[in-house]
């Protein structure tokens, strides 16, 4: 196995702890009903409502908050802490000229925050928040099939950068990372958040990203 040119990195549960989702955090911080929020997701999963109806329902829930400004959403995302092992991992990659690319379904506001904190140039998400002319939340765009969307982004990035799958690794924890993992030369997942659905595809489970750094060092 060769040292990778690029490593793709998921955010929720990989860069962050995954103890609470960004979505739940928004609802609770806007003092809205988490039960109503989860009921919308249940209705969607059971085919009782469409994706657009779920988006409209959740958007309406958030817009009923007294303060649903863009600034408020940014403050909410600031509560999500980056895991302690991520920054040293990022520094090692920078020192060794390995590109790090974020590939996530997290809201774009959160993605941009993580990009800035980790000094990452490239980051992609399937979720876009839309704000009105007064910078108040309006609605969001969300990919129904996150796994397919991630794979499409991944494939386009490889073509645009003249890379082959053998030159890239993927680090993630969920079923929406599975298709990209299958296409990557090596894939790893954090032991504390990994989904049972991807265990058969993961080359490595880790407690700390330091373990991935050790593998990279052996490939020098």
From TrEMBL:
- Keyword set includes Metal-binding: yes
Q: Which residues form a coiled coil?
A: none
Molecular function (GO) terms listed? Answer: L-phosphoserine phosphatase activity; magnesium ion binding
Q: Which InterPro entries match?
A: HAD-like_SerB (IPR050582), HAD-like_sf (IPR036412), HAD_sf (IPR023214)
Q: Give the record's keywords alphabetically.
A: Amino-acid biosynthesis, Hydrolase, Magnesium, Metal-binding, Serine biosynthesis
Q: Which GO terms describe its biological process?
A: L-serine biosynthetic process
Q: What is its EC number?
A: 3.1.3.3
Q: Which pathway?
A: Amino-acid biosynthesis; L-serine biosynthesis; L-serine from 3-phospho-D-glycerate: step 3/3
Q: Reaction catalysed?
A: O-phospho-L-serine + H2O = L-serine + phosphate; O-phospho-D-serine + H2O = D-serine + phosphate
Q: Does the keyword Protein transport apply?
A: no
What Pfam families does the database record attribute to this sequence? Hydrolase
Q: Would you tell me the Gene Ontology cellular component terms?
A: cytoplasm
- Annotated TM spans: none
What cofactor does its activity depend on?
A: Mg(2+)
Instruction: Please give the superkingdom of this protein's source.
Output: Bacteria
Q: Which NCBIfam families match?
A: HAD-SF-IB (TIGR01488)
Q: What is this protein called?
A: phosphoserine phosphatase
Q: Which organism is it from?
A: Candidatus Dojkabacteria bacterium
| Upper classification of the organism | Bacteria, Candidatus Dojkabacteria
